[in-house]
Write a structure and sequence with these properties.
With 988 residues, the chain is α+β, with helices and mostly antiparallel strands. It is built from 30 helices and 40 strands.
């Protein structure tokens, strides 16, 4: 115990030094040992920058291989005793293959014919039920050759079912694609596809060992190949495309695609075909889904007559102002000639026709034999790679400089104290100017893709960032007081550069038609002027009658379900209901998009409430239940089976008396996020407790890094999600047994609140962090507690650190028995049944049982993600269903374990005042420096007054304060008693 106290004292001493700036001497000494321009943060610089393929491949000493293709059978090359198992597959591969599952490593010995740089490819097949692509790590002779090899993605191929699907309103729906299980071949490729060509590996002559470790999914591995880089088709003397043949391919009709979320969509644009004024018809390939480098679509077409043909597209590309999106165009799987590699699709805000042309502006025709052919379009990142890699490096170096400055100046800058920053960082001005010049060079460099404009709008953040750097360079000694302009605010240089990366990574390309045509063919034009007017007028009037998924356009005899989600969610749900629930039960259901969940109380008062309200905020059911608007679900005989589908802690907010008034639909899990690259290089362990968090802070803060706690990301109102976890971890409750017995000033609660506030007042956690995601991505805040939205952002919007972060359980508080209490919030959306006739309530209950059932939730989640992509990952509250949803396997284990610690604050009359006063107390202590005990005692008085007022309003207290009936506060034991049937039923 004494050793713990001593270590805490030392930690506090070091942190105080850091915060006060007294660590300047240390910084001066450390900097004096570094060469000018060397990053003080180099010890944990991201491998993405220091060991990426661009850097590593420049140092290759061998020449590119130019010999014959080398083939190695898995059966012969496999190292006996390594992971996986040799099997005979069911898909008629030529020899035995290696079956590798998640976590297994398969090793192979291959003989390279000479010292050379090789392209390596693999035959593979993914026959699992998972919709996720397989991910693997490659090691060559015992080490990962470059950063990109730590995450290799082997995609699935997807095909449409060939059937057109409509909703009940006559609108064409996006069909769910099927995974095509077949043997495929793929080179070692960059998972983010900044390179559209294979990543070559340097091998010595003779025996080399390849290790492949599966990090996601399972795979069958076939033969391994060493070869040269794939070449374009042999250059031929191109001829004009004489003739009048015209083949039109509707872009929404793909034959194959390598991402299930690439999908068709509907636009009401008279230039598009097909077109209807009253109903949705899928008439484009949706640019919102075809947007990422490496995404690929393949079309099939037939030519009746051999000859030379031009290739054209009707497209729209409006994401990158003044800058093209690039795509490789392959015919029958090969590039016809170099002009088809990374071909530019210029910026245009409306659909237009474009024909592929060469550098002389002549049509780049291709020769096609009569018969069936394929055209493949793959978004390319080659031409923007240098921009992304340079900006990545500059951002990293700017963050390094910001950390150096923090070392010198401390966290708390005194504007009355002169600081000669140049003395400690002599090259600070040179660095800033160098970065500004490099950004300006990038901006000039991209002009070649659109020389007709003075400045390319899509790259304007480069101009803003370079101006900011030059402004800071004018007065380098004032940078400590302007550090937020450099790297630590939403208007900083690094934020502008981060925004640029997001823009450059977006390659939304919408396609209407593909033309394979000859010179004398006439390409179709859009509707003429007068026809366009007619169609637009017709569309305008039909918009008043076509109210699909609107509560104003339903059959009142049907069960009415309002859903507080997007149209995409509702379309899938209604289709599942019509195809599964209604045939099974005979109950017809109308699903409507909810107008406003906050007006459900008013809708009920006016008699316009639905039978079921789904996807509403978990706190709303109490407001409806206490007013008698919704059904107590424990009145149904089989309530235990339904309510037990989620974790018990999520049910507390919907408990009133002996009843439970809502079924949890989704969870908003909170977990610990951490940068594995930075933590490893600092030699830091993932903290298990809050105490361990505090003990690691000196190591972080002396380098200018920090830990994120959720209250820092909340607005002025700190919700229960941010203020209650530490209270619950210390064993505290917000209330005693009855309303009016406020316990936020109890000893246990004070311990939790003290811990919470001291994290910011003593341990110097940042109190205001508008975007933890951005700081985490930059690396200056490499660890912190955050929720589901953070997971979604990192998974889908931060590909550059995809292999450099992980999640863990929330650090908790160790109790006297040694158990770590990890309580955290988890409430997201819930479903309720409104009071109505017994018949309609019974139908509503059957619907809720079906909707929250494991099979339904799994089907909905998989369909949603397959159809619309990983951004629509479904966070179901049904724990059994969650285990089968397509989440990353290792992350799913952590999330499911954390769900066992989900504990929500009870909702009673006046609870909003508790939430508000806890927030106010936090703000007064952390921001205003007030005393916690005094602040909380004052808050309790206000809470008690408001609670008393609400108890009077709802008939629990008389006006003279006499208790008419007790309002018992629910807790986890209340939920357990209700679910076990031990609680006496008030309705009986």
């Amino acid at each position: 115990m004494r050793r713990k106290k001593l270590s805490r004292f030392i930690a506090l001493t070091v942190m105080t030094a850091v915060m006060s700036g007294s660590i300047t001497g240390f910084a001066e000494k450390e900097n004096s040992q570094e060469t000018a321009g060397t990053s003080a943060n180099a010890e944990y610089t991201n491998d993405m920058i220091g060991r990426n393929y661009t850097v590593v491949s420049k140092n290759y000493t061998y020449s590119a291989y130019t010999g014959e293709k080398q083939e190695f059978s898995t059966e012969d090359a496999y190292v006996e005793g390594s992971g996986g198992s040799l099997v005979t597959d069911n898909y008629q591969y030529k020899n035995k293959v290696l079956n590798l599952k998640i976590g297994e490593t398969g090793s192979f010995l291959i003989n390279a014919p000479e010292d050379a740089v090789y392209c390596i490819s693999f035959d593979y097949l993914n026959d699992s039920d998972s919709i996720l692509p397989v991910q693997m790590t490659l090691s060559v002779n015992g080490e990962v050759p470059f950063y990109e090899a730590s995450r290799l993605v082997f995609e699935n191929t997807w095909v449409d079912k060939g059937e057109i699907s409509y909703d009940r309103y006559g609108n064409e729906l996006v069909s769910v694609p099927d995974k095509l299980v077949r043997w495929e071949n793929k080179y070692i490729m960059d998972a983010s596809y900044r390179y559209s060509t294979p990543l070559a590996v340097e091998l010595k002559k003779g025996e080399n060992k390849l290790d492949l470790t599966v990090s996601e999914g399972s795979i069958l591995l076939g033969n391994i190949y060493l070869e040269t880089e794939p070449q374009v088709m042999e250059e031929v003397q191109r001829e004009p495309a004489k003739g009048n043949n015209l083949i039109i391919v509707e872009a929404e009709d793909t034959a194959y695609r390598n991402d299930s979320s690439i999908r068709p969509s509907s636009e009401f644009d008279t230039a598009l075909t097909p077109y209807k004024t009253s109903n949705k018809v899928l008439n484009i390939l949706d640019g919102a889904s075809f947007k990422e480098a490496g995404q690929s679509v393949t079309y099939e077409f037939n030519t009746e007559q051999a000859g030379w043909y031009n290739i054209g597209f009707a497209y729209k590309q409006s994401d990158k102002a003044d800058f093209p999106v690039f795509a490789d165009i392959l015919i029958d799987g090969k590039l016809p000639e170099t002009v088809f590699r990374a071909y530019p699709f210029a910026y245009t805000r409306s659909y237009k026709n474009m024909t592929v042309k060469d550098e002389n502006k002549d049509n780049a025709s291709v020769y096609l034999e009569a018969g069936t052919h394929t055209l493949t379009l793959t978004i390319s990142g080659d031409n923007t790679r240098i921009v992304l890699e340079t900006v990545d490096r500059i951002m990293s170096e700017i963050n390094d400089l910001a950390l150096e400055i923090t070392k010198v100046a401390g966290k708390n800058k005194d504007k009355y104290r002169d600081l000669n920053l140049v003395k400690y960082i002599p090259d600070v001005q040179d660095r800033l100017i160098k970065w500004a010049e490099q950004l300006e060079t990038l901006q000039d460099g991209v002009k070649k893709y659109n020389p007709g404009v003075k400045k390319i709008a899509a790259f304007s953040p480069l101009s803003v960032a370079s101006s900011g750097l030059r402004s800071l360079a004018k007065e380098p000694n004032n940078i400590p007081y302007r550090i937020n302009e450099l790297a630590q605010s939403t208007n900083s240089v690094t934020q502008y550069l981060a925004n640029l990366i997001d823009t450059v990574n977006r390659n939304a390309l919408s396609l209407d038609k593909i033309y394979i045509y000859q010179k004398d063919a006439k390409l179709p034009k859009g509707a003429g002027f007068f026809k366009s007017i007619y169609l637009n007028v017709s569309r305008f009037f039909s918009s008043f009658t076509n109210q699909a998924y609107s509560s104003a356009s339903v059959d009142k005899e049907h069960l009415q379900v309002w859903v507080n989600r997007s149209r995409q969610h509702v379309e899938i749900l209604q289709k599942m209901i019509d195809e599964e629930f209604t045939p099974e039960t005979g109950i017809k259901v109308d699903v409507s998009i909810m107008p406003d969940q906050n007006k459900l109380v008013l809708a009920n008062a006016s008699g316009e409430a639905p039978d079921v309200a789904a996807s509403i905020n978990y706190s709303i059911p109490f407001e409806l239940g206490i007013r008698g608007a919704i059904k107590d679900l424990t009145e149904y005989e089989d309530y235990r089976e339904v309510l037990s589908r989620s974790t018990e802690g999520l049910l507390i907010p919907s408990v009133i008396g002996d009843g439970i008034y809502a079924v949890p639909e989704t969870i908003n899990f909170w977990v610990l996020y951490y940068r594995t690259d930075i933590m490893n290089k600092l030699g830091l362990e993932v903290p298990n407790t809050i105490q361990e968090v505090k003990e690691m802070l000196p190591e972080l803060q002396m380098r200018g890094l920090n830990f994120y706690y959720p209250t820092a990301g909340m607005s002025s109102l700190k919700t229960f999600h941010g203020t209650t976890p530490l209270l619950f971890q210390y064993g505290a409750s917000l209330y005693g047994k009855t309303a009016g017995d406020t316990m936020v000033n109890s000893d246990k609660a004070m311990k939790g609140l003290t811990e919470l506030t001291e994290l910011f007042t003593i341990y110097n956690l940042p109190a205001d962090v508008p975007s933890f995601y951005q700081h985490f991505r930059n690396g200056d805040m490499p660890i912190g507690i955050a929720e589901y939205n953070m997971y979604n952002l990192l998974t889908n919007a931060a590909p550059e650190i995809a292999n450099s972060w992980d999640i863990a359980l929330v650090p908790g508080v160790e109790d006297e028995s040694g158990e770590v209490k990890r309580y955290a919030s988890g409430g997201a959306e819930s479903c309720v049944i409104f009071n109505s006739t017994k018949e309609r309530e019974e139908m509503a209950w059957k619907y809720l049982k079906w909707w929250t059932d494991k099979e339904t939730q799994v089907e909905f989640g998989q369909t949603l993600q397959v159809t619309y992509g990983d951004e629509y990952i479904w966070n179901t509250a049904n724990t059994e269903a969650f285990t089968e949803l397509p989440w990353k396997s290792e992350d799913k284990k952590v999330i499911l374990e954390q769900t066992e610690w989900m504990l929500e604050a009870p909702r009673i009359l006046g609870t909003y005042m508790v939430e508000r006063e806890l927030s106010n107390s936090y703000n007064k202590v952390v921001i205003d420096g007030k005393d916690l005990r005094t602040t909380i005692d004052s808050s309790v008085k206000r809470i008690d007054r408001e609670t008393e007022r609400k108890l009077m309003e709802f008939g629990y207290l008389s006006e003279d304060g006499t208790v008419l009936k007790e309002y018992e506060v629910p807790d986890i034991e209340t939920v357990r008693q209700i679910l076990s049937g031990q609680e006496s039923r008030t309705q009986e």
